Amino acid sequence: MDPVFMGxxxxxxxxxxxxxxxxxxxxxxxxxxxxxxxxAMRLSGSLLLSAPxxxxxxxxxxxxxxxxxxxxxxxxxxxxxxxxxxxxWWFFRDAYWCAxxxxxxNTAAYASEIVRGAVLSVPHGxxxxxxxxxxxxxxxxxxxxxxxxxxxxxxAYSNEIVSMVKATxxxxxxxxxxxxxxAQKLISQTFRAxxxxxxxxxxxxxxxxxxxxxxxLLEYRLSPHLRAAPREPASAEAAHA
Amino acid sequence: xxxxALMGFGPGGWGGAMVAxxxxxxxxxxxxxxxxxxxxxxxxxxxxxxxLPVRLLADGYTxxxxxxxxxxxxxxxYFGGSVALSAIGQAFGAQGFIGMPALATxxxxxxxxxxxxxxxxxxxxxxxxxxxxIEAGRSVGxxxxxxxxxxxxxxxxxxxVPGLGNVWQLVLKESALxxxxxxxxxxxxSQIGAGSTREPFPFYITAAIxxxxxxxxxxxxxxxxxxxTLRGERRA
Lengths: 241, 236
Description:
The structure holds two protein chains of two kinds.
Chain A: H1 3-14, H2 17-43, H3 47-62, H4 65-75, H5 80-86, H6 89-93, H7 95-120, H8 124-132, H9 137-167, H10 179-190, H11 193-222, H12 234-240
Helix pairs in contact in A: 1-10, 1-11, 2-3, 2-7, 2-9, 3-7, 4-7, 7-9, 8-9, 9-11, 10-11
Chain B: H1 3-6, H2 15-49, H3 52-67, H4 70-91, H5 102-128, H6 131-139, H7 144-174, H8 186-197, H9 200-229
C-alpha cells in the first residue's frame, strides 16, 4: 500500500461526498414524510386507504432498488412525449431526480412499516388512560402516541438511514458522480482495487458511524425515564462526614 | 411489436431469455446464500467461543461489511479478483489479463456480505438455545462435536429460520447488483433486451414482476418452514 496514492485517492473520493450526502439526506427526508402518510393510510382502518399503501409497500420491498432506479430512469424515458406533454420531462430527464425519487420511494416503503410497528407498540392502556382524561384524538396523538412511538421506532429507523446511505451508491450506476462512482472510475483506471476500496469504504463507514451515534444520542435524550436517577453529589456528603 | 409479444415465448420474443435469466438470478442467490452460511457460521462461532483476537476479527468483519455499500464490495471482488488472478497467472508464466468469472465473483461477494448478516442471525439464535440443554448434553458425556451436531445445530437452525428468511430476501435483491460485473442475470438480461429493442419499459417492468414473484414465493416458503420448525412448540 502506497500512502501517497491513498492520500490522493481519499481527496479525490471526498469530492463525491457532497452528492452522496445530498442524496441520502433528501431521500431520508422525503421518504420519511411519505412513510408517515403511508403508515397513516395503513392504520386508518379503511380498506380503501390501506390497500393501496399495502400494495406500494409490497412492490417496493419485493423488488431490488437497482431495478426500481432503472425502471424510473430508463423505463419511463420511453414515454418521453407523454411526459413532455405533462410538463414533467425535466424531472425524469435528470438522473439526480430519478435516483432521488427511487431512493425516497424505496425508503418510504421500509420506513412506513417501522412507523406502523412503532405506533402499534404503544400500550393500549396508555391510549385508554388518555381517553379517560378527556384528551381528543389530536392531543392524544401529540402527547401520548407520537412520543412513545418515536422512541420505540428509533433503533430500527437508524438501520434504515444507514441502509439509505449505503443505497446512494447505486446512483453511480446511472452516472451520478458520488463516492462510489469516483471509486469505480479510479479502480478501472488504475486497477488498485484494494487501496481505493479501503478509502471509499472508510468514507461510508465513518458516515454510518456518525449517523448511528447521532441516533443513539437522540435515543438517550428521549428516554430519561430509563436512566438511573442522578446520584447525590458525593463530595458534599463526604465533607460533612 | 407490442410489449406482450415482446415478452412472449414466440419467435422474436424475449420471454424465454428473461425466464432463463431469472434462473441465473436464483442460482446466484442460492450459491451466495450458501457461501454466506459458511462465512456466517464461522463468524458466529468466532464471536461466541473464539479467543479474543479471533472474536475482535469477527466483530470487525460483521460491522465493516454491514456499513459499506454492497456495490463497492462487488467492485472490490470483481476488479481485485481479476488483478489477483492475473498476478497468479503471471507467476505461472501466463501472459496478459485474466478476468474473474462473473458467477464466482458474484458468489463470493454475496457470500461475504450475507455472511455478516447471517452471523448475527446465528448468534442470536444460539442465545435462544436453553443453557440447561447444553449442560445436560455435557453431563451425559457428549463431546463438543456431538453436542454441536445433536443439540446446538438443530435448535439454532430452528430459531434462525425467520432471520434467515430476511437475509434470503436481502440476497435475492443484492443479486441484481452483480449485473455490473456483466453476469447475465435477470437485470443484466433486461438491460441487454432494453438496449437492443429500444423499449426499456417492458423489460424492466417484467424484471420487477419476476423479482416480485420470486420474493413472494420465498416469503410463503419461509413462512411454511417456520410453521414446520415450530410444530413441536406449545402455542401461547
